[in-house]
């Protein structure tokens, strides 16, 4: 394993979420792919930088594990991935997929892009202005 100059690197957390229109393999696969594409497009992040990724899904989604989709991406098969069911809270956003990624990053926290897509875009409106890179 390649050693990193630890001068500017630190462990950071990246959040993100999206929604799907239906509980199907195709809908979940498309949404997870879009979410991870946005993550990688707007953050200087590689699979080697990632410590772990936890996906959570609302209880109405059970057609496929998001980690199974992520594992198909180049080099993501080396990243520890976990799927969990998100806590059910009355009135919360349905059909939602979230992630929490811990990674080594060298950019300031304020420059991290946290992708909130589709119906999940309103979950963290405070992060909408965090990055000038947001789509």
Report the total helices: 2
| Strand line-up across the major sheet | 1-4-2-3
How much is the average pLDDT? 89
The level of helicity is: 10-25%
Q: Describe the biggest sheet?
A: 4 strands, mixed
Strand content bin: 15-25%
User: What is the number of E strands?
Assistant: 4
- End-to-end separation in angstroms reads 34 Å
CATH class division: Alpha Beta
Instruction: Please trace the helix and strand order, writing H or E for each element.
Output: EHEHEE
Q: And the CATH topology? A: 60s Ribosomal Protein L30, Chain: A
What's the shape?
Answer: globular
Counted up, domains total 1
Structure description:
This protein has 135 residues and is an alpha+beta fold. The model is unreliable at 129-135 (pLDDT under 50). The protein has helices spanning 25-42, 66-70; strands at 10-19, 50-57, 81-85, 96-105. The protein is built from two helices and four strands. A four-stranded mixed beta sheet has the order 1-4-2-3. It is globular, with a radius of gyration of 15 Å. The protein has a single domain, classed as 60s Ribosomal Protein L30, Chain: A, CATH 3.30.1330.
